[in-house]
Amino acid sequence: MHAELVDEAKRRSYTASKQTQGRIDETPGTMGISGKEGVSTMATQTLTIDSQVHSYERNSSARPWRGHLQGPDEVTGGQMVAAMDAVGVDGALLISPYSMYGFDASYALSVYAAHPNKFGVIRPFDWQSDTIADDVAEWAAAPGVVGARIMLTAGEFEADDPGLNQILAAGAKAGIPVNIMASGKLPLLLDLARRNPDTQIVIDHVGLAQPLVPPAPPEPFADLANVIAAASAENVAIKISGACTLSHQPFPYPDIWESLTKVFDAFGFDRCLWGTDWTRAVDLLTYEQGVEAFRVTDQLSDAERSMLMGGSLAKIYKWSPK
């Protein structure tokens, strides 16, 4: 990062240290933990499930990256579990990173095999495949699998695209939700949802473009009207993942709540799923900050927090950590 971005990240973390209970390693660019003693005294007593995390190994000839995902040089399954354990997160949806591995989810599956009680696995699908129905059915039958993913941001599409609709239909047949990365393309997502009413669709990342490095965009919630419109389809839920990266203020990010409340009102808490989008957010906040911001806020009742931070996910994905 440029020097001024590093300075801003350090300032945000220093401010957070004055506002968070417990000992936290608050340096952006780290996993943001300092061992079990770093767990906040605000830790929840109900199941906490992160709706989106990533894990990957270092770039190598054995498993080469096809591109780049913002974050450390590696975040192994063991490192991700340690980060979650340190802040009282019970489990997570492990999303195979499209930018690194494309449609190959072999590393995510290996992480699940090593930590089967912590992760449910999701991977993106190739809309140009000639065997989409079989691909999704085979994936859905694999141990640990809880969903599929479509990257609308990876191309230009129309609502009648055969591949997209085949993935959605196959997800419905297999009984697994389909996550959709749809920032900037929410009207298209809504059209797809209406064409596939039997498919459980889950919007990624509040449906909004989110930054890789600070600062947040000048108007981070500029597309909020299209986010709210998507709630009109009853088969659409939404991840409140990475929301803290949209803030212009330091921890606990008070300026995100006015817009998030509109999302909660439109979807209802039973269709909203908290998440961090770790490790993409690594240069904007620590993992613990992404968790604690939702624990310490007075904008949520205990019942709302419980549903948002695990209850709705367990219901929608029919999965919870053991």
Q: What are the defining features of this structure?
A:
eight-stranded parallel beta sheet; about 325 residues; disordered N terminus; about 35% helix; alpha/beta; 11 helices; globular; TIM Barrel
Which sequence of SSEs, written as H and E, runs from N to C? HEHEHHEHEHEHEHEHEHH
Strand order of the largest sheet: 1-2-3-4-5-6-7-8
Please tell me the CATH architecture by its name: Alpha-Beta Barrel
Question: What structural class is derived from the secondary structure elements?
Answer: alpha/beta
Helix content: 25-40%
Assign the CATH class: Alpha Beta
Total strand count, please? 8
Q: Can you tell me the CATH superfamily? A: Metal-dependent hydrolases
Question: Ends: how far apart?
Answer: 39 Å
Give the amount of beta strand, in percent: 5-15%
Radius of gyration: 18 Å
Number of helices: 11
Q: Do you know the CATH topology?
A: TIM Barrel
Q: Unreliable runs, pLDDT <50, ≥5 residues?
A: 1-30, 33-44
Largest sheet: 8 strands, parallel
In summary, what is this structure?
With 322 residues, this protein is of the alpha/beta class.
Give a verbal description of the structure.
The chain has 322 residues and is α/β, with parallel strands linked by helices. It has a single domain (3-317), classed as Metal-dependent hydrolases (TIM Barrel, Alpha-Beta Barrel), CATH 3.20.20.140. It is built from 11 helices and 8 strands. The chain has an 8-stranded parallel β-sheet with strand order 1-2-3-4-5-6-7-8. Helix 5 packs parallel to helix 6 and helix 8 runs parallel beside helix 9. 49% of the residues are buried. The model is unreliable at 1-30 and 33-44 (pLDDT under 50).
